[in-house]
Amino acid sequence: MLAALSLDVVPLWVVVLAKSGFVLFVVVTTFAYAMLFERKIMAWMQLRPGPNRVGPWGLMQPAADAAKMMFKEDLTPSTADPFIYRFAPWISLATAMGVFAVIPFSETSGGLWSIGNVNSGILFVFALTSIGVYGISLAGWSSGSKYPLLGSVRSTAQMISYELAMTMSVIGVLILAGTTSFAGIVHAQAKWWFVLPQFVGFIVYIITAVAETNRAPFDLVEAETELVGGFHTEYSGLRFGLFFIAEYLNMIAVACVATLLFFGGWNPPFGLTVIPGIVWFLLKDGFFIFIYIWLRTTLPRLRYDRLMAFGWKVLLPVATLNLMVTAAIVAFGG
Amino acid sequence: MARHDLENGAEGARGLILFWLLALLLIVTAVFTVTQKSPVYSVVGLLANFVVLATLFLTLDAEFVFVIQIVVYGGAVLVLFVFVIALLSSGVGPFAEGPNRMPRALVPAAFIVLVAFAALVYGLVRGPLATAAVHPSSAPLGAAGDAGVFGSIADFGAALFTTHLLPFEVTSLILMVAVVGVVMLAGDAPPERTHGSHSPQVRRKPREREPIVKAGR
Fold first, then answer.
1. I want to staple A181 with a disulfide (CB 3.0 to 4.6 A). Which of A313, B56, B59, B143 is the partner?
2. How far is CA A194 from the centre of its chain?
3. Could you report the per-residue pLDDT of A225-281, keeping only the tens digit for each?
4. By the CB < 8 Å criterion, does B212 face chain A?
5. Check whether domain B1-90 has CATH 3.40.47.10, yes or no
6. A31, A34, A52, A30: which is closest to A43 by C-alpha?
C-alpha cells in the first residue's frame, strides 16, 4: 500500500511527505489508544473499572484528554531559561517521531512498507535515541527549580548507563544476521526467530528498553513520590503533552525494534502466511506494549543506587558475555 | 549518494551546494558555541555542530562514521557536559561572570587558525595530499553491516585491528589513565555503614527467633 505510492510520475518529496504523514497519523492514533489500553489494563489488574465515562467503554477518553491538555494554560516559570525551556520538548518529540522513519512495518511484493529504506536502520535508531536524552536533561535544567533538576540529572546518568547495555545486547543479533538493515535482519529470521539463539540478549534488551523509555519500574526520572513530577514538574498544557506523546512513542518504537530484532518482524509463525505480515507485526508489537504495561503494574520502583548497580554490574557484563559467546560461535563454529 | 553526485555533472552541482551549505552551518554553529555566555547554550551549539558534521559524513556515504559521531560525541561526551553543568549550576542563574577574555584570546586564536589553515592549503597544493591519488571506491553501496560494501563495519573493524592497531591501543591506554586519574582525584573514603550487616539476620534459624508471647487472656 505504502510502496504502491512510489510511482515514477510523483516527485520523491511528495511520496516521502505523504508516507510520513500517513505513518505519523497512524502512530499518533496508536499512542492515543495505547494510553487508554494502559489505563484499562492497569485498572483490570488492580480490580477497578478504569475510564468508562466518555463514549462506549471509555473509547473517547483519549479525545477528552487531548482537548483538556490543549486548553490548559502553558506556563513558563519566571526562573526558567525561556528559550531552552520551550525548545526541549521538541527535541524529545522529534527524536521519538524520527525513529518511525526507518522502521519497516511489513513487506509485500511491491516492496518494503517503510518511509525510508535505510541501509543501517538500527544504527540510525541508536543515533536518534542518544540525541533523545537531551530533551529530558535540558528540560529539567532549564525549568530553574529543584525537582526537575534532580530528575534530569538522574535521567542523564540512567540513560547513559542503560544505553551501553542496550547496544551490547543488540550487537549479538547483528552478528547473527550479518547486516544492520532491518529488512535484512527480518529476512535472516525466516526460519528461526532470534529470540531463541539470542535469548540472553533479548532479556537484556527488554529490561534496558524499559529503562531507556523511563517507565516503571525504572521511572526514577519522574518518580512522583520523590520528585513531584521529575523533569516535567514545571511543564503544563500542550508542552507537557509533547513529553507525554514522546514517552509513549518511545515505548511503541522500542516495541517495534524488539519485534524486528527478536520476534521475526512480519514473518508469520508456524507458516501461517494466510494472515498478512502487517497483522503479525502489529500483534507482536501489541504483545510487547502489553508486557511493558504488565511490568509497570507488577513491579515496585527500584531504589536509585540499586538501579545503577543493576545496570553496570549485572546487565552490562551479561550483555558483553553474550556478545563474546555469540561472536566466538559465529567465528569458529561456522 | 553524494559520492556519485560529485562524479556526474548536474547531480554534482546539487552535491556541491549541499557541501557548502553544511560547511557554512558547521562554521556558524562553531562560532555560536564559543560566543555564548551561558554554558548550556554552548552545549546546544556544540550538539548542532556535531549533528551537522555527522551529516557531512553521511554525504560521503560513511553511514557508520555518521552514527559513531552522533552516538559517541553527541550521545555520550556531550551528555556528560550537560550533566556537569546541571550539577554545578543548580537552576538557570548564570555562572559568576568573569572579565571578558574574548579580545585577549582573539589574537592567538586567529593566529592558530591561520597557521592551521595555511598547513592545510600547503598539504593540498604541495604536500603528500596533492600526490596521493584519490581512488573513488568501486565497492557497492549497501548496509554498513554487510561485508564488502563501501564503508562497511567489517572493513572498519579490520583496519582498526590490523593497520591501525597501535594508535587504537595507545588511545585506549590514554583514556584508561584518565579514568584511573579521575577515580583517584574524585574518589573518597567509602561511606561508613550506618546500618548493620544483613547476613546474621538472614542466617538466623527459625528456632532462634524471639518467642512470641500472646498478650491478654
1. B143
2. 20
3. 777 777 788 888 888 888 888 888 888 889 989 988 888 878 777 767 777 778 888
4. no
5. no
6. A52
Closest CA to A201 of A36, A109, A321, A81: A321
pLDDT in tens, B112-166: 989 998 988 888 887 666 555 555 555 555 556 565 666 677 777 888 888 888 9
pLDDT in tens, B58-101: 887 777 888 888 888 888 888 888 877 777 765 455 556 667 77
Q: Residue A131 and residue B47: Cβ atoms within 8 Å?
A: yes
Residue B67 with chain A: CB contacts under 8 Å = 120, 123-124, 126-127
**Per the CB < 8 Å rule, is A124 touching B67?**
yes
What CA–CA distance (Å, rounded) separates A235 from A243?
9
Nearest to B64 among A123, A144, A179 (CB): A123
Domain final position from A71, A105, A122: A71
Please report whether residue A3 resides in a domain: no
Return the C-alpha cell found at A209.
Answer: 528498553
Both A127 and A213 in one domain: the answer is yes
Question: What are A126-139's pLDDT values in tens digits?
Answer: 888 888 888 888 88
A179: contact with B, CB 8 A cutoff: yes
Q: Which residue of A has its CA nearest to B91?
A: A144
Tally the residues of chain B: 217
Contact of A213 with chain B, judged by CB distance below 8 Å, is answered with no
Domain that holds residue A52: 9-71
Structural domain count, chain A: 2
